[in-house]
From TrEMBL:
<dbReference type="InterPro" id="IPR003280">
    <property type="entry name" value="2pore_dom_K_chnl"/>
</dbReference>
<feature type="transmembrane region" description="Helical">
    <location>
        <begin position="203"/>
        <end position="220"/>
    </location>
</feature>
<dbReference type="GO" id="GO:0005886">
    <property type="term" value="C:plasma membrane"/>
</dbReference>
<feature type="domain" description="Potassium channel">
    <location>
        <begin position="85"/>
        <end position="140"/>
    </location>
</feature>
<feature type="transmembrane region" description="Helical">
    <location>
        <begin position="90"/>
        <end position="109"/>
    </location>
</feature>
<protein>
    <submittedName>
        <fullName>Trka-N domain containing protein</fullName>
    </submittedName>
</protein>
<dbReference type="InterPro" id="IPR013099">
    <property type="entry name" value="K_chnl_dom"/>
</dbReference>
<dbReference type="GO" id="GO:0015271">
    <property type="term" value="F:outward rectifier potassium channel activity"/>
</dbReference>
<dbReference type="Pfam" id="PF07885">
    <property type="entry name" value="Ion_trans_2"/>
</dbReference>
<feature type="transmembrane region" description="Helical">
    <location>
        <begin position="121"/>
        <end position="144"/>
    </location>
</feature>
<dbReference type="GO" id="GO:0022841">
    <property type="term" value="F:potassium ion leak channel activity"/>
</dbReference>
<dbReference type="GO" id="GO:0030322">
    <property type="term" value="P:stabilization of membrane potential"/>
</dbReference>
<feature type="transmembrane region" description="Helical">
    <location>
        <begin position="47"/>
        <end position="65"/>
    </location>
</feature>
<feature type="compositionally biased region" description="Acidic residues">
    <location>
        <begin position="19"/>
        <end position="28"/>
    </location>
</feature>
<keyword id="KW-0812">Transmembrane</keyword>
<keyword id="KW-0407">Ion channel</keyword>
<keyword id="KW-0813">Transport</keyword>
Amino acid sequence: MAKSKSKKPFPRPVKTREDDAETDEEPDDLLLTLSVDPTTDLSSTRIILTGLSLVGIGMLGFYYIPGLMVADVDVVAADDDEPSKNGDRWINAFYCSAITLTTVGFGDICPANPDLLGRVFLTILPLFGLGFFCGPVLSIASSWTSQVPGGAVALGTLTIVVAVSALTALEDMSISDAIHLTVITGTTIGYGDVTVKTDEGRLFLAIYAILICGMFGAVLDVSKTFLEALCQTPAPKKRRAVNKKKRD
């Protein structure tokens, strides 16, 4: 019998350095694509207009829907010619709109005793506010605060100092209460233990809440970086040696 010829193994393609270079370039290109700055497509003008629209919608809701503000259920002053004890209704509506959209929610003058329509409104409005301030506002604030000398920390500190000075003047607060209120507002906790009482104070705090939320988000990036460094697990010695060998 004739011996069967032994089949030669199929030759494997030889991997060249050029192939290695191509495979190494692919992840780099992918990472470059994924690391595109998301703020490049954001328009400051559109963000401002969107924010004003949300605040306006909130104001109209709080002003016209019954039972959303404490002024709607409180007894007015004894003299019918005097305004409500709770201040100007439009300023209260602006204050409640800003405090709701920023999700601070002090609960001092709103909500009062809303009906079904009021509860639906109070359920939907914060969803838009949370998406707006945690999305476009936070993204664009992180981009432009990095261009300020001293960064977000310096800008946030300056804003708090100005707010504390204004609150002590407008509301006759102590410095400790004013600092507490500004920080609790900036972090959107909103305990409600210290609040403003006058029209001027509510108007100022509403504007401050809108401005400080984006800034505080950028400030919290600093604490986030610090805490992440504390929580990282050191790489084992063997892994560090392998990584060092790869780099060499």
